[in-house]
Amino acid sequence: MSGPGGAPALEADGVTVRYGDVLALDGVTLRLGRGTVCGLIGMNGSGKSTLFKALLGMVDLTAGTVRVDGGTPARARRRGAVGYVPQTEAVDWAFPVSVRDVVMMGRYGHLGITRRPRPADHEAVEAALERVELTDLADRQIGQLSGGQRKRAFVARGIAQDARTMLLDEPFAGVDKRSEATIVRLLRELAADGRTVLVSSHDLHALPQLADEAVLLLRRVLFHGSVAEALEPDNLARTFGLDVSDARGGEAA
Ligand SMILES: Nc1ncnc2c1ncn2[C@@H]1O[C@H](COP(=O)(O)OP(=O)(O)OP(=O)(O)O)[C@@H](O)[C@H]1O
Questions:
Q1: What CATH number corresponds to the domain at position 160?
Q2: Secondary structure percentages of the chain, helix, strand, coil, to 5
Q3: Considering the entire predicted model, what is its pTM?
Q4: Which domain holds residue 154?
Q5: CA of 12 to the centre of ligand 1 (A)
């Protein structure tokens, strides 16, 4: 489960993030090993995107620490060790780049001193496009793809990057069945290859086929364990903000 030197692939310790008055994360502690797909489940506003930003070093932590691949998030990003598929809303789809250009961005950490792509970089990009079944659309401007195709383009970027850790924020939102099945298959392949995949969703139906483990988030980690246990009614009630104290005879939920 651990990487070189025994360090977990992803490690958050007491991570707290405040945006002014809003407490987005409250002491999140989480460890993920290698070769696993972990589903990150929480309702809108529960802090899923903020946790990704914390793991990527893209937000100031009010408290706590994050380690990716045994180092800081900035170091992991510089080394291309962490791939990120952002939420659809977080991307400027009008940006004048082709699908192939987006996938090539995954190679930036691999480029030599000239910063010019070499044959191996082009080969990695074409192979990644093929794996997500977007070869035919590779020359299209990124905004001219459907929702599912856009997600697949960003998954291809992570594959081309050869990232050891992949973070995906709501990859199934607005995605058709074919794209969903392709993404699930690819993420399972990445985990089988020893990579660590953390994938957020507020939708639970894909979870059993997709994930080996699940984290339930509501500003803090309510549960981390098997998918089957995560889907138990009590856990879901707590995650989605329902008060189950009555059902438990007054015990605090
Ligand atoms: N830049 C920001 N400034 C102020 N508040 C923010 C900012 N970003 C997020 N928040 C707030 O922090 C909380 C957590 O937001 P976050 O985007 O992490 O949730 P989420 O679980 O990803 O939600 P969703 O499922 O809707 O994407 C929310 O209350 C949100 O309104």
A1: 3.40.50.300
A2: 40, 25, 35
A3: 0.88
A4: 4-239
A5: 18
